[in-house]
Amino acid sequence: MATAGKVIRCRAAVAWAPGKPLSVEEVEVAPPKAGEVRIKIVATGICHTDEHILTGSFPNVEFPVIPGHEGAGIVESIGEGVTSVKPGDKVIPLCVPQCGKCSFCLNPESNFCQKCHISEPQNLLPDKTSRFSCKGKQIHHFMWVSTFAEYTVVPEYSVAKIDAAAPLDKVCLFGCGFSTGYGAAINTAKVKPGSTCAVFGLGGVGLSVVMGCKEAGASRIIAVDINKDKFAKAKELGATDCINPRDFKKPIQEVLTEMTGHGVDYSFEVTGHADTMIAALASCNMSTGVCVMVGVLNSGSEISIDPMLLLTGRTWKGTVLGGWKMRECLPKLVSSYLEKKFNSDLLITHTLPFARVNEGFELLRAGKSIRSVLLF
Ligand code: PAD
Ligand code: ZN
Ligand code: ZN
Q1: Which residue among 63, 251, 353, 358 is least packed, with the fewest CB closer than 10 Å?
Q2: Where in this chain does the record put each Enoyl reductase (ER) domain (predicted)?
Q3: CA distances (Å), 3 to each of 7, 9, 42, 309, in order?
Q4: Atom 44 of ligand 1, residue of closest alpha carbon
């Protein structure tokens, strides 16, 4: 490409300080160094985790920063030594890398690469420098992806090459929301056919959990949300019952236990609130129930539980990106999408030009969108 080796000036949404709206700016994006890939981002979704960044409640983030982690694009140029992708390839940048070398990458049961942001900050690229600047200031990367930029630079092991036929404005959701929810049911909980499930929170991630439970053959999927406007979509995607905790006087865990006899087989927390985390745990069967924590609690917050909840046999676990080893699994997930095994397009309620990024966040906060996709 004509731009290879040159600094590219393009648009990006910069979060200058916590609690401020994003500012669409012209930024400079330096060429990729050895082992890095520069990607032209075509589409990016807005995930609730980006909201945590804007409010400064996600661990290890440094400002100013270019957020965004649910994107898809085309390789513009590659640094020295890069072999797995070439200019023109369609790719999804990965907010959980797969370095292939650490003990978790080598363990078939883990997808939590030790180069993940939660163990090692990813505000700068691995050589501890940034490829972004704006108005003479260095801008930080976010989780090595920063998809709220028209061009971004990521390490080679944070990129998955996908089928050239994939529509980027749709499969961008695979960078986080869809893969997380769908995988939480299939990989993390390993939902069994004929089982009962409860999903707390019906945003883009929670509805993807509903899809995963359905795909796994669950016979009852109880969708729980305080916003009843989410129920129609939940039913369309496979929920058998929809309940609003605000419609009941008793705690929702008691309602779910009564509905199912002894509690559900699998419960999923996908709101990021302390009280629903405890409710989700208490909603699953006290002996064999599995509760999966997907939601991100504000950084620094804590919850306390009665250990009796676990003593009787419940399993309480978390998931990052739905347990997928992203570099090897994402291309297969995209192929399944192309084969119409599931329809993640139903999660996209709004498509907006990139300049309207703040409006996309307003829609999310107001509970009016599931996923807004921004197009460059
Ligand atoms: P979203 O804001 O689109 O959806 C959250 C939903 O929860 C909304 O429908 C709310 O109405 C609902 N809700 C809020 N409070 C309650 C309550 N008390 N009871 C029931 N429902 C409630 O968010 P999202 O789907 O983009 O993300 C959901 C969470 O998952 C969020 O915390 C995000 O940070 C986290 C996440 N985790 C991972 C991971 O890898 N673990 C990946 C992506 C997102
Ligand atoms: Zn996300
Ligand atoms: Zn690794």
Answers
A1: 353
A2: 19-374
A3: 8, 10, 16, 58
A4: 49
Which ligand lies nearest the alpha carbon of 110?
Answer: 3
Q: How far is the CA of 107 from the centre of ligand 3 (A)?
A: 10
What is d(CA 279, CA 252) in angstroms, rounded to the nearest whole number? 7
Compute the distance between CA of residue 268 and CA of residue 231 in angstroms, rounded to an integer.
16
The residue whose CA has the least distance to atom 43 of ligand 1 is 177
Report which residue type is found at 88.
G
Peptide bond into 64 cis (omega under 30): yes
CB count in 10 Å sphere of residue 314: 20
How far, in Å, CA of 285 to CA of 305, rounded? 16
Ion ligand 3: residues, CB < 5 A? 99, 102, 105, 113
Model-level pTM?
0.98
For residue 49, how many C-alpha atoms fall within 13 Å in the half-sphere facing its CB? 23
Mean pLDDT for each 10-residue chunk of the chain (376 residues)?
94 96 98 98 97 90 97 98 98 96 96 91 95 98 97 98 98 98 98 98 98 98 98 98 98 98 98 96 98 91 93 97 97 98 98 98 97 98
Asked if residues 200 and 224 have their Cβ atoms less than 8 Å apart, the reply is yes
